[in-house]
Design a protein that fits this description.
The chain is 52% helix and 14% strand. By secondary structure, the protein is α+β, with helices and mostly antiparallel strands. Strands 1-2 form a two-stranded antiparallel sheet. Strand 1 and strand 2 form a beta hairpin. The mean pLDDT is 76.
């Protein structure tokens, strides 16, 4: 009987964690973008918008 209670609690906690993960990823995805590109931790803005590749000014 104790294993049934533990399994039920684990299932409920797992479902709450899954709902939180899906909602958090939706929030992060909605706030992402905005014209700033990130490449290996370096943030820069695309200079040439006509090209499919971003180039930085050096």
């Amino acid at each position: 009987m104790d294993m049934l209670i533990l399994a039920r609690r684990f299932t409920i906690i797992t479902l709450f964690a899954a709902v939180f993960a899906v909602s958090f990823s939706a929030v992060v995805n909605r706030n992402a973008g905005g014209g700033v590109q990130s490449h290996f931790g370096a943030n820069y803005t695309c200079v040439d918008t006509s090209s499919p590749f971003c180039r930085t000014i050096r």
